[in-house]
Amino acid sequence: MQYARDGAMSALILGFFASCWFGWAQEKPPPVWRSLLIVGAVLSLIVAVVGAVYAWRNWSGGSALGEPGAMRRYGIIVGVEFAIAAVGAAVIALCGGGEYIAAWVCLVVGVHFWPMAPVLKSPSLIALGALLTGVAVVAVLVSRTTAVATSAITGAGAGLALLGFASWAALSAIA
Questions:
Q1: pTM score, two decimals?
Q2: How many whole angstroms separate alpha carbon 14 and alpha carbon 19?
Q3: Dist. CA 100–CA 124, nearest whole Å
Q4: Is 148 exposed, middle or buried (0-12, 13-18, 19+ CB in 10 A)?
Q5: Which residue, 67, 75, 22, 45, is CA-closest to 170?
Q6: Distance between CA atoms of 93 and 101, rounded to whole angstroms?
Q7: Could you write out the DSSP letters of every residue in 63-127?
C-alpha cells in the first residue's frame, strides 16, 4: 500500500470481514473445526482493532481515496457488489439452493477486488480477488463430494484468505 492509512484501513476492513466469514463457517462445520473457527474470528478482530488504531493515528496522512474521483469509483464498486450479491442470493434462495449463498457471496466479493485494486492502488487485491473466487468454486465442488457444508468451506477459506491479507496490511501500516 502506498499510504499507511490505507494499509491500516485495509487491515480494519479485511479483519472485520474475515471475522464475519469465520462466523458464517459456523453453519454446520465439522465439529473439529469449531475451535479453529473461533480462534480465526478472534484473531481477525484483533487485526481489525490494530488496523483501527493505526488508521486513527495516521488519519491526517494521505490516501489513495483522496485522489479526484477515487471515492466515487469506490462507492460505485461497493454499491454494485452489494446489489449483485443480494439479487443473486435472493434468486439462489428462491430456486431452493440456499446452501450455495455463501459461495455466491464469496464469488462476488472476490470479483469486486479486481476493479477495486486500481482505485486503492493495491495490486495485491487482484491476488486476494483470485483467491476468494477460487475459494467459492472449490467450496461448491468439495461440498458436493463430501459431507461438509458449502458455507463451512467457503467461510473457512474466505476467513483465512482475508485474515492473511489483513495481517499483511496491518504489518505494512505499522512498518
A1: 0.94
A2: 9
A3: 27
A4: middle
A5: 45
A6: 7
A7: -GGGSTTHHHHHHHHHHHHHHHHHHHHHHHHHTT-GGGHHHHHHHHHHHHHHHHHHHHT-THHHH
Say what angle helices 124-145 and 101-120 make with each other, to 10 degrees. Answer: 170
Instruction: Give 40-64 pLDDT, tens digit per residue.
Output: 999 999 999 999 999 999 898 889 9
**Vertex 171, ends 170 and 172: CA angle to 5°?**
90
User: 2-6, 82-86, 116-120: which range is least confident on average?
Assistant: 2-6
Spatial CA neighbour of 60 closest among 18, 129, 4, 110: 4
Q: Is a pLDDT exceeding 90 seen at residue 1?
A: no
Of the candidates 171, 157, 175, the residue with the CA atom closest to the CA atom of residue 21: 157
Burial of 56 by CB count in 10 Å (0-12 exposed, 13-18 middle, 19+ buried)?
Answer: exposed
Pairwise CA distance, residues 82 & 80, whole Å = 6
Q: Would you give the distance in Å from CA 92 to the centre of its chain?
A: 21
How many Cα atoms within 13 Å fall on the side-chain side of residue 164? 13
| Contact in structure between 173 and 54 (CB atoms under 8 Å) | yes
The answer to whether 7 touches 170, Cβ cutoff 8 Å, is yes
